[in-house]
Structure prediction request, 379 residues.
Amino acid sequence: MTEEKVDIAIIGAGVIGLAVAAELSAQQPGRSIIMLEKNEQFGQETSSRNSEVIHAGIYYPEGSLKARLCVEGKELLYRFCDKWSIPYRRCGKLIVANSPEEEESLTGLLEQAAANGVEDLELLEGKQVRHLEPNIRANRAIFSPSTGIINSHRLMDRFEQLALENGMMPAYCHLVTAIEPKPAGETGYRLHFKNPDGSTDTIECHYLVNCAGLYSDQIAALAGIDITAAGYKLHYCKGEYFGLPPSKASMVNRLIYPPPLQGLTGLGIHATITLDGRLRLGPNTVYVDSEEYSVDPAHSIDFFQAARSYLPFIEEGDLEPEMAGIRPKLSGPGEPFRDFIISEETDRGLPGLINLIGIESPGLTCAFSIARLVAAMIS
Prediction:
């Protein structure tokens, strides 16, 4: 470590931490910025284990951060991809309905989307759906033309490169172990961390931005916050994915979603195409006690039964375990919707600490808008 004091320390090098680093280093070039990450490289957890979908902002309650930042972030993200040649495809999405209850839910989704400022949706009848996607089953569907998919690794790589060019100091394999706030009346923190060789060290910062993803509640606790009383405690929610054979991948050209699960605990087991031509199903919603990424092959029957209602061409033997990701959810099993926490903590006696907790879907889409919000808090 070459500096004992910096202006801004960012903990976490997922897509959000990288976006924040790129934005802050561009807006405030005179300030020294360090990014501490416990893994060997960026995006090793939630940011690299998801559907890589650019969302439109349909589902989330009006006025929520998820709704506002998703609608804003989508267009910022597409413009950034065009500027820097980040691979993406504005493929569009169909939210399909095959029962009276599902058809009724489409009406609610249209109303929610309109309240959120999503103005490009179309309600399609079955014949119109078959014209777009002749191989799927749907009595009716919502078509979202601005939904897309992205190469999230290339996105993160570009964020990192821009931040490096602006002087950001990366510190990979550096695990933060303790946080000491400065005395009352002063703004700043002393971070204790473990170096790659196992030795320990400290660094002081004026502003501390907690982008630690799955461990963001633990970082908040290290700073002295009672995460249970504050409502900051995270629940790990695993989502498994199953891949379909190449012969089936060409039968779908868009993302195919069922209506979302109750309370937005997930968006249902959907069919996602990838930029390299694969077709996969997932994720499901399984709360777990620890960070583990195994996929249970026995769950293939649940995926098959869920997707068979709208993908009649798949067969049970088609599904192969692919990967799993962990969502850092603020809502536990059976609990209602929780919004992102993006909070400057002066009111808790911790000025200059900005906590980003519970940044799950649509966090990837919101990366730019979240980064701008953090930058506004600091400036």
Q: What stands out?
A: Residues 129 and 171 are 49 Å apart (CA to CA). The two ends are 26 Å apart (CA to CA). The longest helix spans residues 65-84. Residues 5-48+153-233+337-378 form a domain with the FAD/NAD(P)-binding domain fold (CATH 3.50.50.60).
